[in-house]
Amino acid sequence: MCGIALSIGPEADPATFRRMLAVLAPRGEVTETRQQDGLLAGVRRLRVVDRERAVQPWVSPDERHLLCYNGEVFNHHELRAELTRLGHDFRTAGDTEVVLAAFRQWGEEAVRRLRGEYAFAVVERATGRAYLARDPLGVKPLYWSRAPGCLHLASEVKALAGHDAPISEVPPGHHGWAEPGGPVRLRPYVDLLTIGDGLPVIDDPDEAALLVRVALTDSIRARLDTDLTVGVVLSGGLDSSLALLHAAQLHPDCVAVTVGVPDSPDVAYARRLAAELGVPHEVIELRPRDIRLADVREAIRISELTEYGDIINAVVSVPIFRRLRELGLRRPAARLHPAAAEEPDVVLLGAARAGPALQAALRPAAPLLRPPAARTRPARLRQRAHPAAATTWTGPSPTGRPARTPPCWSTPGTWSARRSGTPCRWPRGLVRPRTRGPGPGVR
């Protein structure tokens, strides 16, 4: 994860801006800033892809636009190739530069081409206008507040507290413009409930199972674009077991880490699976009595979570990060919340999650997991979900024929798996497989 902070306007104050960045320190290992009259921009960056050259805030070649970006665009290689054909030159191999080039090429329509999890701001340096965007499921956070003469943007509510101004969220799947001294106008650019409408219904269970298998494999493959060690948080459940299975097949350097109650079925299954796959496995034993009230409060403060289940997961992730540091892996690039600001040697696939046995053991502590009123936020502000909840599939077809599905969330012709119970839909341009069974996966 990374963290971004901006103060835009004639009253932008360097001291206030420095305090905002200091709050975001646990989100990365380096602080990078760019300052000019009326624009203070900074990023607390976790260096994962093109670690030395993909600096931020990123400025366009003509110095007209500035980008502060938190997240990962999984299809940046495809977008880079397309933009190169359109005449864009690139100085790095990371996705940050691609995001800004895509915006400069396609404007507000660029966000519909991004496949990933992201929150970013593009500022017109001459006017102070800022374009804001957030991924369809709100995996990456972005908040804003307006004080007299200044618009503040940040990745965490804590960074905006103390400005004596209301704090608002950029909702998931929204984008729009913040005018200098004017309103912030945001609108949705995707409707997840309508993705796949109008496509033929798949009524064959074998075909549906095949599509789910291919979509899952492609979703995990897209998240393994790194030369760092990949760590999988293995709770012992179905989802994390599938993540480990695919990660071990798709990435040459993979480890697993589990946190749970000693001798619980969850931990036993996690040990067995890791052993069968030949994956190095670290088990962190955690009993309810090991969790102190201070640990719970700190997890709430860092993660800004309010839901009981989310807080449990935040609490149990802290010993995971601590143990990884003891093993010399230092700070992981995790999906949930930070533990220390150090250079990463491992990327965690997925977020820390307590298994059923650990959740049951912690249930008596539920009253302690209610955050103080001053720290609570509406539950809708933390409706975090994984991009696999509405997967866009861009890999080769199960039959070996090339797919015509574009790498975006909302373009008709993409396949999506929906939680509402509606049947799966076959992508346009693909021939249905005639064979039964799981079929080949995406390599």
What does this structure look like?
- This protein has nine helices and 16 strands.
- Helix 5 (238-250) packs parallel to helix 6 (265-277) and helix 7 packs across helix 8 (308-326).
- 26% of the residues lie in helices and 20% in strands.
- The chain is of the alpha+beta class and 443 residues long.
- The strands form three sheets. It has a six-stranded antiparallel beta sheet, covered by helices on one side.
- The relative contact order is 0.13.
Major β-sheet, in short? Answer: 6 strands, antiparallel
Helix/strand/pairing class, anyone? alpha+beta
- Which sequence of SSEs, written as H and E, runs from N to C? EHEEEEHHEEEEEEEHEHEHEHHEH
Order of adjacent strands in the largest pleated sheet: 2-3-1-9-8-10
Strand runs, count: 16
Rg estimate, integer Å: 22 Å
Total helical segments: 9
Q: Approximately how much beta-strand content do the residues carry?
A: 15-25%
Please give the share of residues in helix: 25-40%
What integer is the average pLDDT? 77
